[in-house]
Amino acid sequence: MQGCERPIDDIDHPERHANGGESTRANGQGVCEGHNLTKEAPGWRTRVSDPRPGRHEVETVTPTGDVHRSQAPPALPPPA
Ligand SMILES: [Zn+2]
Question: 2, 39, 51, 75: which could join 70 in a potential S-S bond, CB 3.0 to 4.6 Å?
């Protein structure tokens, strides 16, 4: 999530699988364990707001209605 410097612990679905979110690259997000557990708490919502490759933006809405958008970092080049 935006501003988090911790390593990725969990690869998850921004749009929950239980709510019909597909297991696709476009609906994937890598987050630390703490943020993954937080976004599963009541009142939190996440969705992919821009699935374009090279952008992949996830929108997070907190229980107070604050909206945060974060983008995946640039992809690493393929190994030489
Ligand atoms: Zn985090």
Answer: 2
What does the alpha-carbon distance between residue 22 and residue 14 come to, in Å, rounded to a whole number? 10
CA of 77 to the centre of ligand 1 (A): 24
Q: Where are the domains of the chain?
A: 10-71
| Span 36-65, pLDDT tens digits | 999 889 999 999 999 887 788 999 999 999
CA–centroid distance, residue 49 to ligand 1 (Å): 19
Q: Locate 70 and state its tokens.
A: 């974060």
> What pLDDT, on the 0 to 100 scale, is given for residue 1?
65
d(CA 35, CA 24): 20
Label residues 23-58 b or e (16+ Cβ within 10 Å = b).
eeeebbbebbeebbeebeeeeeebbbbeeeeeebeb
